[in-house]
Design a protein that fits this description.
Elements: E1 7-11, H1 20-30, E2 34-40, H2 52-58, E3 65-71, H3 79-84, E4 89-93, H4 102-111, E5 115-120, E6 138-142, H5 157-170, E7 176-180, H6 188-194, E8 198-201, H7 203-206, H8 211-219
Parallel strand pairs: 1-2, 1-8, 2-3, 3-4, 4-5, 5-6, 6-7, 7-8
Length: 221
């Protein structure tokens, strides 16, 4: 799996979960590059969402990259489960608790056969991610506060994208930057200009009459 171009990751947090299989088929037909799977435990963030059993069931007819975002208080315990369920990328939060340390958790993801992502919440200084440049495969900059779909993009996120991109380039490392929250045809141009490689979009895609056109509108910016 090569991560070297601007891609669209459709967040199923905004999907109709009563017919999730059909919604995933719609994402595939629309040509999205990834399926963004938000996993919440009701502790790290208030809501609770799907578990590894659901991801495993979706994996039966996969044919799309599974971009799994663990919003969990203790993600280490769940990493092997979501890897076995079919995840291609597993992202964990710099703000979570780690019994054996954050770097060990990232290495566990890689040992499980997945790309390792590191997510950063809006209030967290981007400098917290700098020590993991060259260790994490993907950096997920949250441009909304995690937990709920349909939130407005936080403009200050652009500075964090630029800072991380500049730091990585100064180190001679091609870091992959994913931006999650409030992405639509109005916010995407500035996000791409700031240095994003992957755009996570939920409400904009799933509420669209023509999801394929919505996906393409993000790619053509």
């Amino acid at each position: 799996m090569v991560l070297n171009m601007t891609r669209v990751s459709a967040s199923i947090l905004s999907a109709d979960l009563s017919r999730l299989g059909d919604e995933v088929c719609r994402v595939k037909a629309a040509g999205a590059d990834m399926l963004h799977i938000d996993v919440m435990d009701g502790i790290f963030v208030p809501p609770m969402t799907i578990g590894d059993v659901v991801v495993s069931s979706l994996n039966k007819t996969k044919n799309i990259t599974f971009d799994t975002h663990l919003m969990l208080s203790r993600p280490e315990r769940s990493i092997p489960l979501f890897a076995q369920a079919g995840s291609d990328i597993i992202s964990i939060h710099v703000e979570s608790d780690y019994e054996k340390g954050l770097q060990n958790a990232l290495e566990l993801i890689k040992k499980s056969g997945c790309k390792a992502g590191l997510a950063i919440n809006p209030p967290t200084p981007i400098e917290k991610a700098f020590p993991f440049i060259g260790i994490a495969d993907v950096f997920v900059i949250m441009s909304v506060n995690p937990g709920y779909g349909g939130q407005a993009f936080i403009p200050q996120s652009l500075n964090k994208i630029e800072s991380l991109r500049n730091k990585a380039e100064n180190l001679g490392i091609n870091a992959v930057i994913e931006v999650d929250g409030g992405i639509n045809e109005k916010t995407a141009p500035a996000v791409i200009k700031a240095g994003a490689d992957i755009l996570v979009s939920g409400n904009y895609l799933f509420a669209s009459v023509n999801m394929k056109a919505a996906v393409e509108s993000l790619r053509l910016l």
